[in-house]
Amino acid sequence: MIVQSVIYGALAFLLVVIIRHVHRLKQWRRLTAQTTMLDSWHPIWGHLHLMNDLSDYSRLVIEKVQTTRARLTSTWMMFFYPVFTACHPDTAKILLKSSEPKSKYSMGAPYRMILPWLGDGLLLSDGKKWERNRRLLTPAFHFDILKPYVQIYNDVTEIFLDKLQKACDSRENIEIYSHVSLATLDNMLRCSLSYEGHVQEMGDSHPYVRAVRKLGSLSLRRILSPWLFPDFLFWLSPTGREYKRNMKYVHDFADGIIASRRKIVEKNPGQLQKNKLDFLDILITAKDENGEGLSDLDIRAEVDTFLFEGHDTTASAISWAIFCLAKYPEEQEKIYKEVTSVLDGRSQLSWDDMSRLKYTTVFLKEVMRMHSTVPLISRWLTKPLVLDGVEIPSNLYVDILIQCINHHPDVWPDHMEFRPSRFEDYKNHDRDPYTYVPFSAGPRNCIGQNFALNEERVMIGALVKRFKVELVEGHVYEEYPEVVMRPKYGIKIKVKQR
Ligand code: HEM
Question: Measured between alpha carbons, how far is residue 316 from residues 41, 319, 364 in Å?
């Protein structure tokens, strides 16, 4: 009797769930019909049968937008779930100005995959916690703090250039993405933790480098594997167990450094009067208006967030910048001229030079437009939102396809033409700031953008001063959008001495 009641109860519950979902499906079908929907919709697969990975999704939306000039597109993930995509500044702006949280609440939400690793740091937290921590962390990006980092970028770049020197001497082609990525991680470890652990020299044999790379690739694997969405299945799977092992290593690494720094600061607070503070010093000493500081767990979340957000992104931007130098030799010469003129006989760029590198800066901006460094971000709707005249209901996530905004025909004529002069001030004074959002915009904009631009200027400036770079004939240079824009087959270059 009891068993029978339980079965009937479960069946009734299932029926209610199905009826509710069918009702929502009807509503969603009506809505997606009001937007620009991708072609070739399949009654079971939706649009998934057209996609193997994120790059297919971006490509299909961009292709659709080129012919329709759409502002909002929709894509069906099988027959039961639509994803709306803001692909024009006007629709992206509404979301970017809102306080809607990051997409981490539904099972397949992209940010959920990195949540166990990065925790409730600035990138993933929301509401009051985010507001407080953003306030506490903003001083870490004040120019007084950023100024001494320029010397760190120079030191790190020297090690990177020595590797290029070897390739130059032996006349071998070199794949630069992996080397740039080690250099930017080295920069972040030195600037955030004052850790100098021979990261570039050891490369993948450094356990921290290996663990961070593994966590990135395992998180992506989970995004594309719906059977790993439920937590308990993920943690039981080999992928989840590998994730846990690497996450433990990364957390222990940061915990160890935080604990020993706390001891030093508590014993001798005067040591913070030194010339160079790293991010950890700021995090440990930060206090809110009630005199409350950050817990060790909060600090670890911020450190892990900086290390992840702050090295993969700049690695992508700098690698594609080197690709563009090699692809457009006339641009390389313009930058060489500017850098040598700014240096005026000195060997290294300084803080004061950063604002003088005007052409280099517009070149870097065009690189980040052409090869969108962060191709996509996403928000979760907690309440209905009208985008392009369509009211999207709550409890859905909406992607902001930065890559598509960077190539939208309404904003960027001849979008595939590489033309840094688009960004020169006199032409852009009245441009809507939401037309170009490599660092996002609005309240959740990138806190590290000045850090990133300075690092890019120093690495690119030092590179062109010492070498000429060229593309390798026959190599295929293809974009592969993931969390950041990667090259599908690496970026191979030839290096020649100046
Ligand atoms: C070229 C380099 C970089 C690019 C293109 C970039 C891009 C972005 C974008 C698009 C976002 C918004 C993410 C979202 O809404 O989900 C973001 C947020 C963030 N970025 Fe960056 N970033 C770069 C470098 C850095 C660096 C160097 C750091 C740290 C030193 C950093 C730290 C952060 C943090 C902490 C957030 C979250 C901010 C918040 O929500 O309050 N980024 N970045």
Answer: 33, 5, 12
Q: What is the residue extent of each domain of the chain?
A: 88-497
Length of the chain: 498
For the CA of 451, the closest atom of ligand 1 is: 27
How far apart are alpha carbons 416 and 394 in whole angstroms? Answer: 36
Q: Which of 313, 400, 404 to probe ligand 1 with, by most ligand atoms within 8 A of CB?
A: 313
Sign of the dihedral defined by the CA atoms of residues 21, 24, 29, 32, in that order: negative
Atom of ligand 1 nearest to the CA of 455: 27
pLDDT digits (tens, 9 = 90+) for 101-139: 988 877 778 888 899 999 999 999 999 999 999 999 998
At residue 426, the pLDDT reads: 54
Q: What DSSP character marks residue 496?
A: E
Query: What are 128-137's pLDDT values in tens digits?
Result: 999 999 999 9
Write the residue with the smallest CA distance to atom 31 of ligand 1. 448
Q: Which two tokens stand for residue 72?
A: 């909002």
Indicate whether residue 313 lines ligand 1 (CB < 6 A).
Answer: yes
DSSP H helices, 194-237, are: 199-202, 207-223, 231-236
In short, whether 305's Cβ falls inside 6 Å of ligand 1 is yes
Confidence at residue 5, expressed as pLDDT on a 0 to 100 scale = 82
CATH H superfamily, domain 88-497: Cytochrome P450 (1.10.630.10)
The answer to the question of whether 87 is labelled as a binding residue is no
